[in-house]
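Encode chain A's predicted structure.
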Amino acid sequence: MFKSFAMKASAAAVCTLGLLTAQVAKAEEAAVKIATTNWADVLAVANVVKYVMETKLKQPVQFVQADIGIQYQGVARGDLDLMVGGWLPVTHATYFARYKNDMEDVGVIYKGGKNGWAVPAYIPESQLSSIADLSKPEVKEKLKGTIQGIEPGGGLMQASEKTISAYNLDMKLQSSSEAGMLASISRAYPAKEWVVATVWSPHWLFQKYKMRYLKDPKGTLGGEETIHAFGSKEFGKKFPKAHAMMKKFNMTLADVEAVEMEGNSTNDYATAAKKFVDAHPEKVKAWLAK
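Encoded structure for chain A:
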């Protein structure tokens, strides 16, 4: 009798486990998979999108951390549903050319993005104002022959390699991460040491530090960029309400920087996004309009 009871209990446990597994799988399947990186602008936009989808559309969202190249590949293959940091026409041109036929350009999120190399404002402009000035021996020595970069897969890093070649610079592009790039500036700034870094706008660092872009007369780092949302070919069919919202979703540079500043200062982008959305009902109304 005891054996019979144990067998029944075991069978019930297996059934319960199976049911839970199926429920988890169903929940994961029902979530919009949005690709993210630890770049401030992507975190700001992705968290706003997530908060609106979850609270206004009751649509679960799952963040998937991935390098930018993997994001394009994942969306094109349908493994990811959405990415919100596609920079065109220059920064991600290589990725876009490769995957554009296998994904949907859902829309422009904001305009006015900019890539470049920047230095602290305390470095005399008379000595360093343009990328060409980096070829001066005295300038190179003060910068220790290094340009501080970010993740090696980023479009800005690819453009930076081309820039070094175009300007015939004898400088090393140091691969790192956004956090590593920011750390190099934060270490140099108090002592007014020289540093040059790959940066972009919008970014909260321009609110915290006085920085200036180096002039790029050859335009190898690109001009004004527009930031797109790209979805998988199935995104609209799988999540019609979320797709309709994203077709109307847009922010300004100031919006993105506001969420960035709050998210960076509190280390809580989710709460920063909530504060922004709750403070701008008119924007939410426009995003959800039918």
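The first helix runs from residue 2 to 30.
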